[in-house]
Amino acid sequence: MDHRTQLALIERIQAHRTAGRGTDTAPTSMLLPTTAYTERERFDRERRLLVTTPTIVGLSGLLPEPNTHATVEIGDRSVIVTRDTGGDVHAMLNVCRHRGAEVAHGCGAAARLRCPYHGWTYELDGALAARRGDQHFDDRPAADLARVPVLERGGLIWVNADRDGSIPDQPLTGADAELAPFDLASYRHFGTRTFTRDLNWKLAVDTFCEAYHVAVLHRDTLAPMIHSDFALFDAAGLHGRLVAVRRSFTELDEQPVDQRSLFPHATILWFLMPNTVLIHQQDHVQLYQSRPGATPEQAHLTVSIYVPPDSPRSDQHWERNFDLLVEVTDTEDFATAAGIQRNYYAGAQTHVTFGRNEPALQHYHRSLLTLLEEPT
Ligand code: FES
Ligand SMILES: [Fe+2]
């Protein structure tokens, strides 16, 4: 994010402070039927959408050097992403062409992938390298792993898990320019944690799309550091960016205007369709992803931390940080979302309301309806 953009955002925050408890707003509030979170038919369309839409699978640091691979889950498909000897990135369905076993698990470094069932081996671009008893098989042309579209751009790796799908050249539609100065390509992947909770996958995204709840739900944890008010929202195509203001923002009042920097006085949060939330904290990046579970009432949640290469912090520091952020989001946000899900499931009310003060939430759900090709 360049300095001019930061100064413009600072000015907008100042205007909200001057107004009292201001925050960016949408023209009207919005109603969404609670069936969006419970209906099986809608859920099945979302599952299809997630495997046919370009999705971020991680920062470039997920594949830190040549001859590395990582398995990622996109919707309900397992995908292997690799960085080959020359540094190019590839993506293949994690399905052995012999009998369908998962070829890889987790992250690793190796020049080839070896299926754990009968030992077929694959090059990092998915080509079949060798198999025992090769003379017994007639299907060599169809024996390579199924390749799917992949794009590494601006330090982010995008995959479309659909073999016939595509990824646009500029998948961030405008956010690219803002993210470029962060040099995300240089960040190190510290770790990823995955867990399953009883809530619709969208509720896990919803909780990041407004700062309104911070003062109440996070009264003792985040509220001492982050304001519930003064939040900014800007759309970037179907994606969006939320700026949550830290309490240290008042320090800017002492600084000459041209020396002001929005960092470290704000947390910048991008929601990137269809299911990713990328949060730029002062000294690291958090990546949250939510996927549908077996039913509309279940979600698989993935949290990753990436740290800049020059970070002076120890791994113990990041481990503690990881514990803390998972604890807060799990015991506060996701526990609340599970209660919401039970209420929706019980049919206790027909609609949920997104206020004028929750413009990012409104935009997220309109974007999702656009992708699902439903009228908004
Ligand atoms: S299923 Fe992979 S080698 Fe047989
Ligand atoms: Fe929260």
SSE layout and pairings?
Elements: H1 3-19, E1 30-33, H2 40-50, E2 55-59, E3 68-74, E4 77-83, E5 89-93, E6 107-109, E7 112-114, E8 121-123, E9 128-130, E10 150-153, E11 156-159, H3 175-179, E12 188-197, H4 201-206, H5 214-217, E13 232-236, E14 239-245, E15 266-272, E16 276-280, E17 285-292, E18 299-307, H6 315-345, E19 351-354, H7 359-371
Antiparallel strand pairs: 1-19, 2-11, 3-4, 3-6, 4-5, 7-8, 8-9, 10-11, 12-18, 13-14, 14-15, 15-16, 16-17, 17-18
The chain binds FE2/S2 (inorganic) cluster and fe (ii) ion.
FE2/S2 (inorganic) cluster (FES) binds near residues 96, 99, 101, 117 and 120.
SS elements, strand count = 19
CATH fourth-tier homologous superfamily of the largest domain: Naphthalene 1,2-dioxygenase Alpha Subunit, Chain A, domain 1
CATH architectural designation of the largest domain: Alpha-Beta Complex
- Tally of helical segments: 7
Query: Averaging pLDDT over every residue, what do you get?
Result: 94
Low-pLDDT segments: none
| Structural class estimated from helices and strands | alpha+beta
Q: Which hetero compounds are present in the coordinates?
A: FE2/S2 (inorganic) cluster, fe (ii) ion
What is the ordering of alpha helices and beta strands? Answer: HEHEEEEEEEEEEHEHHEEEEEEHEH
Distance N terminus to C terminus? Answer: 31 Å
Helix content: 10-25%
Q: What is the domain total for the residues?
A: 2
Q: Record the strand order, biggest sheet.
A: 12-18-17-16-15-14-13
CATH class bucket of the largest domain: Alpha Beta
Shape annotation:
globular
Beta-strand percent range: 25-35%
Task: Report the biggest beta sheet as strand number plus sense, adding barrel if it closes.
Answer: 7 strands, antiparallel
As a whole number of angstroms, the C-alpha radius of gyration is 22 Å
Please give the oligomerization state of what you see: single chain
CATH topology of the largest domain: Naphthalene 1,2-dioxygenase Alpha Subunit, Chain A, domain 1
